[in-house]
Amino acid sequence: MSDPFFQPVSGFVLPRYAGVPTFMRLPLVTPDHPRFSEVEIGLVGAPWDAGTTNRPGPRHGPRQMRDASTMIRAEHPVSGTRPFERANCADVGDIGPNPASMPDTLERFTSFYKTLKSQGIRPLTIGGDHLCSLPILRGIAADEPLGMIHFDSHTDLYHSYFGGEMYTHGTPFRRAVEEGLLDPKRVIQIGIRGSMYGREDLDFAKSVGIRIVRIEEFFARGVADVMAEAVEVVGDRPCYVSYDIDFVDPAFAPGTGTPEVGGPTSFQALEVCRHLAGLDIRGADLVEVSPPFDPSGATAYLGANILFELLCAMV
Amino acid sequence: MSDPFFQPVSGFVLPRYAGVPTFMRLPLVTPDHPRFSEVEIGLVGAPWDAGTTNRPGPRHGPRQMRDASTMIRAEHPVSGTRPFERANCADVGDIGPNPASMPDTLERFTSFYKTLKSQGIRPLTIGGDHLCSLPILRGIAADEPLGMIHFDSHTDLYHSYFGGEMYTHGTPFRRAVEEGLLDPKRVIQIGIRGSMYGREDLDFAKSVGIRIVRIEEFFARGVADVMAEAVEVVGDRPCYVSYDIDFVDPAFAPGTGTPEVGGPTSFQALEVCRHLAGLDIRGADLVEVSPPFDPSGATAYLGANILFELLCAMV
Amino acid sequence: MSDPFFQPVSGFVLPRYAGVPTFMRLPLVTPDHPRFSEVEIGLVGAPWDAGTTNRPGPRHGPRQMRDASTMIRAEHPVSGTRPFERANCADVGDIGPNPASMPDTLERFTSFYKTLKSQGIRPLTIGGDHLCSLPILRGIAADEPLGMIHFDSHTDLYHSYFGGEMYTHGTPFRRAVEEGLLDPKRVIQIGIRGSMYGREDLDFAKSVGIRIVRIEEFFARGVADVMAEAVEVVGDRPCYVSYDIDFVDPAFAPGTGTPEVGGPTSFQALEVCRHLAGLDIRGADLVEVSPPFDPSGATAYLGANILFELLCAMV
Amino acid sequence: MSDPFFQPVSGFVLPRYAGVPTFMRLPLVTPDHPRFSEVEIGLVGAPWDAGTTNRPGPRHGPRQMRDASTMIRAEHPVSGTRPFERANCADVGDIGPNPASMPDTLERFTSFYKTLKSQGIRPLTIGGDHLCSLPILRGIAADEPLGMIHFDSHTDLYHSYFGGEMYTHGTPFRRAVEEGLLDPKRVIQIGIRGSMYGREDLDFAKSVGIRIVRIEEFFARGVADVMAEAVEVVGDRPCYVSYDIDFVDPAFAPGTGTPEVGGPTSFQALEVCRHLAGLDIRGADLVEVSPPFDPSGATAYLGANILFELLCAMV
Amino acid sequence: MSDPFFQPVSGFVLPRYAGVPTFMRLPLVTPDHPRFSEVEIGLVGAPWDAGTTNRPGPRHGPRQMRDASTMIRAEHPVSGTRPFERANCADVGDIGPNPASMPDTLERFTSFYKTLKSQGIRPLTIGGDHLCSLPILRGIAADEPLGMIHFDSHTDLYHSYFGGEMYTHGTPFRRAVEEGLLDPKRVIQIGIRGSMYGREDLDFAKSVGIRIVRIEEFFARGVADVMAEAVEVVGDRPCYVSYDIDFVDPAFAPGTGTPEVGGPTSFQALEVCRHLAGLDIRGADLVEVSPPFDPSGATAYLGANILFELLCAMV
Amino acid sequence: MSDPFFQPVSGFVLPRYAGVPTFMRLPLVTPDHPRFSEVEIGLVGAPWDAGTTNRPGPRHGPRQMRDASTMIRAEHPVSGTRPFERANCADVGDIGPNPASMPDTLERFTSFYKTLKSQGIRPLTIGGDHLCSLPILRGIAADEPLGMIHFDSHTDLYHSYFGGEMYTHGTPFRRAVEEGLLDPKRVIQIGIRGSMYGREDLDFAKSVGIRIVRIEEFFARGVADVMAEAVEVVGDRPCYVSYDIDFVDPAFAPGTGTPEVGGPTSFQALEVCRHLAGLDIRGADLVEVSPPFDPSGATAYLGANILFELLCAMV
């Protein structure tokens, strides 16, 4: 039974451009709010992009995504799921980053996610760059490695950049595997493409058992077949879903820092999420939405719909 | 035999960026023009968006569409149809709206379309938001309900908004059915998608017999199969074609007020129109092109090509 | 003595791009909030632009202004005023408009401002188009006509548009004078310019005693001299300040619907406000900021600084 | 007495965004129109930019200027001039260029202006790049050299480019002096600035008696003083006014191909024109408005107001 | 064995946004460079768009493409080809055009390509508009007609424009066939679409034996089947590959002057190139990338990837 | 006597949009170039913005500034200075940053500037954010504190951010004073404005003797008077010039991360530099140009002209 407090504002009542924007027009329930502990799924803003090796901007993602997500309505058009009636969902605010210190921010983020976990709140995070996924996993997977379904055009499995830097948006999952936060044999990466530095990341994936579905295989087999395999890879044990917006072709999602052409359509971008229902999802994220490179704001609209799909899969 | 007066200016003679832009570079033949009564298909500008519940802008649609439509040439590339040689086509100008009064504007529009009908001119309207379709139907369908093929991501079948408002761009076809302007059993809506408020519109559609083809069904069956059904639904009796640009995926048509991701490609956007030839089309419209949200102008280019497809289907 | 609750978040603590944006990062204290009655100055969002006769968009003003106003810091650089320590300031939310009904929205707005007045909250409104000023005045000036200092490139004193429409963004102050909400002898309009329809508005101004300072006079005399006169015109009795962003030259504020070239600089845009301190200001507004016509967002930054100047004048 | 046929459409009747756009909403009276010979001042579109040595785009100027000029109203705000009541003004259409042949286009343009002259129509031309001024002068100054007031950041007095090219937008007035179309002793150039290739153009100016007012002198002396000299330079004999939009600072007019920073404001841009009244102006132009480099369209708005100022000076 | 001198800078060492941009971060080896004669494949900038009949801008293509191409890495993701290790690749600079003279520029270009040919350098050209292909062919195909695989939405086979102009971007391949630079029986054009002037170009193609694959056939048969035919058409004799970016749908490549909707995706845009490996490619080009019409820069990113595909096919 | 090698390419020979862009079209002479030691003034790219506390982007500044600076010609329009004939000027390339490590990058930068100093090359740096000025000063002022003329809207004299971070773009000159790199009594800051956190930075300035000229004083006294004082403050001993583009009003320079409205015009932006001639300038920088926030690119054009002014002051 749904709690009226945790319901979004309807566009039939208040036009979508009106009101202070929160994620999906949900109530803002930050950790100091009296009803914080009642939240079941928390939409978290992670305005941090210090891991970016190329064009910056995802730090502005949460704010633009709040704006765009006011377009989301209450019911999934295919499954009929009404997520806000099935779980207490709330915007739990932004994690305050320290833009001048990577170690401090990693620590702040990890701590925030530990708090969520201790309260039984599953996080749906809006980045931020892909390095954000590392402190999320440190916060929620400390006691047990998770499986992961990872949508992306890049593996983010590199060892280091620029002469030994271990923490960039190209390395989070290498670190997560090394730290035992992910169970590589239950990790699948989908959509990988683009010209390559070399084979280092692929060799690592192979060596630890990560399954990579390149875009050619994705297009050849189709969404249903690939996602059936993905569901099998993670199995019925706890898992994480990480969604880099550059998984999608830049025609549909230009607002990102390292676009790779030749990707899926927006329909496929939604469709892949519809196969996640039923998994034991402990958290999910959507990262790398970069407003400064998105003149029309279209990327955030797509992102808002992906968030809604992820949310429907989590409830 | 084609009348030289009703021919567009060729891009071989005058570059496309030159000249006062009219729709498809056709002559401007407003109601006070001596040859008005000779027009057979009138391209009408409807610069009005007072029915918009979200982001405004379609009032600027006709002017931008005139500009973009100067790219259109004389012959259909597949069917070989040369529409300007088969019917007297003209830009019949814009209907003057009253931006401060919805009732007055509805009346002005209805009156304009009644005039067109009385002169035997079939209208191809460039909106404006989707509320424009209501006074068009009031003008041309007063004596006999029409069938309709409706391309859109939304049903526009809601009862009311904001506490009882009956006239918005989300309600025109509910009104049209209620007023007997459409024969709901000969109405088909194609491309419906996006998160939903609830089931009110779908329930209404079902109750009156409107056929809805959701986007998933559209993709699964393909254009040819869906359009064969559409043609069957409207049959050989008089019908209307209403085309909301948000039918198309926003990657191809970002310039619209309420984009819904996960839609058809531009190729499919054209392809669906190619199955309309042979129907008894009494009028058609393309609505919701919103220049302020289209930084590159790409939406208007697509719109101009859709207009040309609709025109080829009408001659 | 300042109340910690009513203080904005500092950019030294949380980066300006982080957090749910409220006006100037103040607490959000809507009418249902327990501390609503403690608010002394309420920043109000008025997302409504149905009075627009030309390019739409100010309905999106409050949201963009909230975002841009996160750049505002705590202290005025010249006067040293720290407004948040001198009055309880809060974002009191947006007034819910009815985009499909002008009468209903005028009523909703009037009612909201009556509530503010009854609670002793002085409003600083962020529009919306200039028609918003009418229901504001109806709400706060019902019992006693106010003087007004009005910055604008247009007089907004027309009788009607489009064949008799009395309510557009070109008529609010004609209505306000007729309704006895403004004392025309204590009204001054500054910055008027642009090609003219005719002399109707000027004749009306003259007939009721409104003082108009055209832009040529403004530039010739300078800010200090003109503002000294403005202060004298309104005197020490209650007054209102209405600021149309198109007062400023469009190079500094492109994001507006009816720009008029040849206006003041951004420095002058701020400077005029600095002469308002000490007046008995019962309310103020900043209107006509239109995000869709502002590719770089610069207009909202200027607007945020004007808001801060107005606020410092009000405390 | 004003002829109703030659009056623009009012914004009180038809909103400014509606209708097929002509210059200032005047009637379109091309040479084949029955009332062509009654036109006294013809607004001419010159969509040609083959003389551009740097960033292209002014070929799109006339179309965008028609759109923006729908903002112009009927009366000058300072002088009270109502130009449309004092002369028969009309949009006489675009001259058809040949984008692939400079000689052919020069010939087409010259011929068009000769026609205008033979009909007693004074041209107010909207470019196009600055090379357009040469065929204009060839058309209207063939029998008697004209004086010229020239607003620009560049002298356009170079001998040649790229190894001997005599016709570019950097050479028109060198040619015009050589061809006896301009009387260099009655030519004044105002606003010159920007880093320089060398002194070749300045030496030429000096050698033939052209007066150059650099921007530093312009700012130091002020508009009134400089323009008094300008009026004296051209005297009471026939003259031409050529206005390159890059005269204005790019903050006010970004949409141009070779912007030079450090220029006049939009107010000064208008003000200089107000001193032209009373001169014997045989033609005028506004050139180098380049829509592709003007994301917000602000340049065209300024341009439309400059056109109106020029028109008021011509009637 | 790869020469260290001819290797690109890695993004692991220097971030992609740093450094003076050359094509793919290769060394700049202009004709006066001591190692020029060692170059095997030369990436050539052709900043010239005088053949454009509509919207200009491709003159800015090479500079933007150099910037975007810094995103390219060293290895092809599917074939594993590492082109920079298989041939000495270099940025050989831009050919200096004469924007004011078409004949002079045609001559300059032809001469440059003759030089490349005489040095044994195969050119991969970055335009510039499609007229550039003509002097390229004059430079490299003078002694033996080439076959050609041509990706485009237009045939570019017209006889002339604007009353007899033989050199525009709509005529290069008509000229090339007439001049014996192409063997029409070994020419295939893929992706043709858009409304048509008439049948003149198609009739010419038919008369000389050029094979045209319209977009409908392309979509129906699929990339592999069409490309198998293409490979067969050109055979194992020397050929050229010409790639107009408007081959791709404008949602993926908006930055072009004459976009035609209804085209291939970015994935297909890459995929077609992967079938070219093994052909005897004597040169290739990518033309019509027009930065002024590409607000997000996405077209150049796609273009850079197409270039990389072409390069991998050439080594 | 000028060395032909160190001369820029002329726009009369090669159009400005052609060629690989280097700063002002000068030769690229990186440290490994044989003529490096002959360089007298080195234009340095500093693509690093890790000190940014708000909107990122200056890392892209050097590349865009190279592009825009191709507009610069050879001679100063007022002084007649031809800088490239008076000193060997060259683009010495970008310093490679480590975007993932602030300490490493500070070290790399310091080392680069030490090299320049040891070679007798005076640096004119193009940032990058304002933190870049710190390692520059560490490199060139290690042996003797410099005076400084600093144009900016912010003092950049804060102690720390975000709970103790000492290195951000708001702290460089605090550090420089503490480290003895600047002689505070010979430092003047001009243009300071915007709402303030508090008085901490001003108190520090006062305590060490830094002179601050607020924008109000700047406008009241005028450029000549303020700059006379500035010249007096630094005296005839060695000094540095640091120019933050946000010194200029955002209407003239929107592309920056923390714009402050109410600033100088572009003319004043150039004019202040013209008073620097004759000073003993050991280095200069232009920082905070942020391309992602500059839709029209106008900021870079202004920046290029400021660079040229600084260069003319340095020779």
TrEMBL record, chains A, B, C, D, E, F:
<dbReference type="InterPro" id="IPR023696">
    <property type="entry name" value="Ureohydrolase_dom_sf"/>
</dbReference>
<feature type="binding site">
    <location>
        <position position="244"/>
    </location>
    <ligand>
        <name>Mn(2+)</name>
    </ligand>
</feature>
<dbReference type="InterPro" id="IPR006035">
    <property type="entry name" value="Ureohydrolase"/>
</dbReference>
<dbReference type="GO" id="GO:0033389">
    <property type="term" value="P:putrescine biosynthetic process from arginine, via agmatine"/>
</dbReference>
<feature type="binding site">
    <location>
        <position position="152"/>
    </location>
    <ligand>
        <name>Mn(2+)</name>
    </ligand>
</feature>
<protein>
    <submittedName>
        <fullName>Guanidinopropionase</fullName>
    </submittedName>
</protein>
<feature type="binding site">
    <location>
        <position position="246"/>
    </location>
    <ligand>
        <name>Mn(2+)</name>
    </ligand>
</feature>
<dbReference type="InterPro" id="IPR020855">
    <property type="entry name" value="Ureohydrolase_Mn_BS"/>
</dbReference>
<keyword id="KW-0479">Metal-binding</keyword>
<dbReference type="InterPro" id="IPR005925">
    <property type="entry name" value="Agmatinase-rel"/>
</dbReference>
<dbReference type="GO" id="GO:0046872">
    <property type="term" value="F:metal ion binding"/>
</dbReference>
<comment type="similarity">
    <text>Belongs to the arginase family. Agmatinase subfamily.</text>
</comment>
<feature type="binding site">
    <location>
        <position position="156"/>
    </location>
    <ligand>
        <name>Mn(2+)</name>
    </ligand>
</feature>
<feature type="region of interest" description="Disordered">
    <location>
        <begin position="47"/>
        <end position="66"/>
    </location>
</feature>
<keyword id="KW-0378">Hydrolase</keyword>
<dbReference type="Pfam" id="PF00491">
    <property type="entry name" value="Arginase"/>
</dbReference>
<keyword id="KW-0464">Manganese</keyword>
<feature type="binding site">
    <location>
        <position position="130"/>
    </location>
    <ligand>
        <name>Mn(2+)</name>
    </ligand>
</feature>
<feature type="binding site">
    <location>
        <position position="154"/>
    </location>
    <ligand>
        <name>Mn(2+)</name>
    </ligand>
</feature>
<dbReference type="GO" id="GO:0008783">
    <property type="term" value="F:agmatinase activity"/>
</dbReference>
